[in-house]
């Protein structure tokens, strides 16, 4: 029996993950300073000036408006520099990563892992795409925090309901679609909770009450004109046409692709042979690992060993990935959008490898030994 504390290696792991994440925060800051990006606009109140907002509360809203509203006290009132804003976001996302790892480790310990499997789990936490896009000012850092808070609420502690509300609320303010998709799985959260039937019914009524305005709001901001397949496809085409107007160097002709090609493009491109420059090569190599991880995750699902605890979050990731596959046509944006969801695919990879290793050990133990 392996010692759980030794397997966790939490002190060393926390130290190296923190150093790695803060190093990438420095790289992120230098990258934005050289190439520009949304992060500067969020900090300087220039990302969306369509309202002509002057005061703090005039910035309040969802999506980009929320980012500017959240940053206003730090950048406009306290006058903190851009690099310090990146550091604050990096520390917040680091907290979320450590919490997510603790949950994943606890679940993995239920499946008789070897020290190598725990090391593998720790290894996937160092993959760079998640770190880069959450190590500075941006929606990804906050959306990731919202997702992790949502995950933490599924342990059904005494404060689970309020953690659930914070997770969905933060996600909704940053990315309304993510918050709406989270709402879909709240009934499953309720079924597993220890609340009395009366409390569950009350929460259910509140959920139903929120669902309709949430749905209508999503339709209003997406400007879907018709609740049909044709209506949604028209929205996807309109959004892709909007993005094409930026004439980005990583533009891909998604409108010419089949549905399968769009999904493959979102999750697995750029391919290694398409990569140009250091950052694209790193992204392409991680995409190779994603392809392997998807295969291993499918094996894990086939043998029903993918942990039930992570099913809702894997489903949220797949739904968000499907939406982005049909609405995006710039590889750089795809890499950013998928960064906070691929971790659940890599968890499937760890569980798949652990399952195959345990099967191997079981078969080896059954082989008769020669005298």
- Mean of residue pLDDT values: 85
User: Which class of secondary structure composition applies to the elements?
Assistant: mainly alpha
The number of E-state strands comes to 0
Question: Globular, elongated, flat, extended or rod-shaped: what is the shape?
Answer: globular
**Order of helical and strand elements:** HHHHHHHHHHHHHHHHHH
Radius of gyration: 22 Å
Count of separate DSSP helical elements: 18
> How far do the termini sit from each other?
28 Å
Strand percentage lies at under 5%
The proportion of residues forming helix, as a percent range, comes to: over 70%
Low-pLDDT segments: 1-8
Instruction: Report the sheet with the most strands, covering strand number, pairing sense and barrel closure.
Output: none
Explain this structure to me?
The two termini are about 30 Å apart. It is globular and about 80 Å long. The chain is mainly alpha-helical. It has helices at about 5-10, 10-35, 40-45, 65-75, 80-110, 115-125, 130-135, 140-150, 160-175, 175-185, 185-190, 195-220, 230-245, 260-270, 280-300, 310-325, 330-340, 340-365. About 70% of the residues lie in helices and about 0% in strands. The model is unreliable at about 1-10 (pLDDT under 50). Helix 2 (about 10-35) packs across helix 7.
